[in-house]
Write a structure and sequence with these properties.
Number of helices: 28
Number of strands: 12
Strand order of the largest sheet: 7-6-5-8-9-11-10-12
Structural class: alpha/beta
Radius of gyration: 29 Å
Helix content: 55-70%
Strand content: 5-15%
Largest sheet: 8 strands, mixed
Length: 734
Amino acid sequence: MIARSSGLPARALFVATILTGSFLLFLVQPLVARMALPRLGGAPAVWNSAMFVYQALLLGGYAYAHALGRWRPRVQAGIHLALLAGAALWLPIGLMAVELPPDAEPALWVPWLLGLSIGPLFFAVSAQAPLIQRWFALAEPGRNPYALYAASNLGSFAGLIAYPLLVEPMMTLHGQSRLWSVGYALLAVMVLACATRLPSGQDRERAEAPVSTAPGWRKVALWTALSAVPSGLVLATSTYITADIVAMPLLWVLPLGLYLLSFIIAFATRRAAADTLTRIAPVTLLLFGGVIMGGYPGRPYFNVVVALLLLFMVSVALHTALYRARPAVDRLTGFYLSMAVGGALGGVFAGILAPVLFDWTYEYPLLILTAGVLIPQQFMTMGLRHAWLRHRRVMLVALVFVIGLLLGLRLLGQAEWFGEERQGPIFLVIALLAFVTIGARTGFALLLAAALVLFGGYRALSLSMERDARMRSYFGVYTVRDEVGRRELDHGSTVHGIQLRGSEARERTPTTYYAPDSGVGRAMRAAPAIFGPSARIGVVGLGTGTLACYAQPGQSWRFYEIDPVIVRIARDTGQFSYLRRCLPDPVIRIGDARIRLAAEASDGFDLLALDAFSSDAVPAHLLTREAFATYARVLSRRGLLLVHISNRFVDLEPLVAAAARDGGWAVGKLTYIPSDLDEQESATTSVWLALSRDADVLRALEARGGDWKLATAPPSLAPWTDDYSSVLPFIRRF
């Protein structure tokens, strides 16, 4: 007989258990990332190494769940409960109290630190999704366990939304750790309750025996591919919309949320939504897949919506195909192991390999094209189906001819046919061809590839052929653009620096946020008068090296830059000459600024400029009480700290003002709005805060000109600390 325990119905108990496990799993990564940031810094090598750790533990958990299937159900339960009990020795969750050297190699230290700190807990919880589904199938023969995977992703979705919106704003890291520990204990109790429902006695042998045929390598490869493409596309979409379209805080939540939502729809018991979306997915992919490549530069939010729509439709369609290809219940854990392998491969391709292989987000169109090959399709009419089946070669030749004609117009210089104002007619041609080709997989893939090239791929490829015109790192895509009288460096959609072209005097002129009348410009020009001819200057954020042109003979300068590609652009390629003309032999420390500054001697700077907060991802560890204590230590007692707070989306003034009040700094704000003449010389609006623990220094700066005002923070606002920070309350309302 099958043992039954009193209490909740079986389905509700198993659903609640799998929800809880997935919720906890999705809280681990941001929680540990917040804990690690002050100690490990924000360098990409840190997060790439962390990603490998998470993927390895997740794959290990799924492999463990699969391996348990060879044991009897009650033995499985005993082993897993023992694992949960053993992993509980690592509670409360947190990082080991180990001080890492400033030059610690992330590839070696991060896996060691994370593995020993959270490895057993992450491993134990990661096995929940496939294992609990398998137990449900054993406890409730004849019922569909795959629907529980929808519940698993619902739990993941809840964790994704809850952390930035509820957990992080309302709790310190210490409180989050305790909450997670309580959740883990609750999960262990729920797993024990599920274990009491596993079969025993006479039903045991029947429940254990596999009855279905083992899947062949083609089926396993299909499961892996159908998992890999959406996994890679969610990362590629995040990179594409945050780097090339709009730099908005927390925007990465939307692609990941839609990815999880697609699993909920695709694995749901009710199939209407999944089947309907899958039928229209090819149309959406073909109509918008190419157009989004060119986009509408004047309408960035429209581009974001289209990119997210493509991700959602592709993910639903491919995950629905995955659900349709699922094996019998006795092969369930192997199915999920293949999915985990696919998810890891997609993540490694888009997150690790692509920034090394490509100079632009080419992984995005490549994954769109791969999705077009895999996506389920049906012919629009029976007549078209017969035409393709009977005259496939003729249909392909005609399609290639039309595509060749369109590509010829592009190559012959008729680029205006594909501009934002002229996309309508071309869009109608693509729509007509889509009606004809959907269902014919080869023709569909050819048309999709052509659309990707026509609307945006051609421009991207042309720019890639120009030497050093575009470079890429794990921080994003950098593009150098030449315009009349100036050269510009763009970091995705954000201007990273501009240099005037022409005479030597023009090329030595600071521009953009660093113009002479900006806050930092006035401070740099005042440095010799305030600190003497041997002033010691530090700059966090190299950019194109613009600030170097404020350097005076006798001064000591030091730059801190986290991205080696930026160093190459500013110093080595010759595209920008600020450093060569103004500071030929600069001292540049590559790495996370807070970690590098922590290793510097006390009282080493008279002026320190922080320019690291203008993008969408605000490095919180540079704005905490502990970070300002580091700045105070490396600055002289009369030292001056300049903080650049120009940001389209985040109001940083109250954050810095609260930290200044807490640390005993006097603080002033200068909002620089350039005149029409200055704008012609590439000066841009900027907001800088000046801080000093000596109020006389601030008064001396203000006396040298500029409309300096008092920067304030609400009396009740506490500064960020390494234990608590949340950007959510400071996002600007539009």
